[in-house]
Design goal:
About 50% of the residues lie in helices and about 10% in strands. The protein is of the alpha/beta class and about 375 residues long. α13 links the parallel β8 and β9. The C terminus is likely disordered.
Amino acid sequence: MQDSSWNDLTGLLDGKNPGYRPVGFIIDSPWIPGWYGISMLDYYTSDELWLESNLAAVQRFPDVWFMPGFWPEYGMCTEPSAFGSRMIFSEKSLPHAEKIISDISDIVRLPHPDVRTDGLLPFVINRLKNCNKAISDAGYQVRFAVSRGPFNIASFLLGTTELMMAVAIDRENTHKLLNRVTDFICDWLSWQRECFPSVDGVLILDDIIGFVGEAEFNEFVIPNLKRIFDSTGFRIRFLHNDADGLITARHLSDMGVNMFNFSFNHSLSEIRILAGEDIILVGNIPPRDVLAAGSAGDVAAAVKTALAEVPDHSRIVWSAGGGMPPGVSSENIRAFVETVRDMAIQGMLDSSGVPGQDEIYYIKCCLHRLTPNFLITLVTLSFNE
């Protein structure tokens, strides 16, 4: 993210109005290669294409906060590889990691990874280091340390079904597994911060926590996620869970989370009530059915519905209810951004159709974000005044 966008994001935590309604998307390998027109294999194996495609995305849409931005990732294989998981690669699909234990009692076989040397971790760190000067020269910084969460990584190592069974019938070994994975995550995030001093945010991606009940959430999820977020000391503490998120939303503050991306099955108003007023919410239109598969008109309609769901638009980053899926077109991204902006301006006009003092301040803050058609509209309004 650029300095100005990062400052606006951190300002949201303090309730500051950035002068516009921010739009942001979680983007990475599921979306970028197809959008840029390169194969998944080329994206992962060519540092040049990885940098070129990521820079193209952020530069094509300067009004969008692409989060986490530039980060050390290799699909779903990054963290499991450090434990010894074998990576399975396909030309047209994301790489995935083979599970390495078949029973929760096999936890004794799991290593204690060294984040500086094991698996793909040194590779993805070195790639980002090699690209960091070009990223900085383009006006961006590495802002987030990123990891999959404890349940997510554990599900890669053991299998999702097996993990859920272990939660129910073998709590002792489940604690051991999650503790070991959490130790690793804390080390991994610390190493990213050491490599990239510009980092002051953490993003944890964990959909599997949405599969457990309240009692299991309190016992297994809260203590481990709290330990992770507390260990970083970062300004932005961002959690992504686009499975069922109602239990998660109620416990965000308990875990030290101050920013939350959640499933499109939950409305912004519903999550706001559960999460409280101090959490930055990131959402919330359907990513696959609308943002990827819908028309620009469908996207605009969904955005208008989301905007109407909550009367107070502070501490909201307008986004999808989940990460950016494959197949999202530039046209649909533009439709999203333009609808958020257009509705903001429409909402600022009083009954006479003339902007007041607060609205004039808004316009001054974001003139550079407007299309020529809206500049013409604003000039006309000024003459009418």
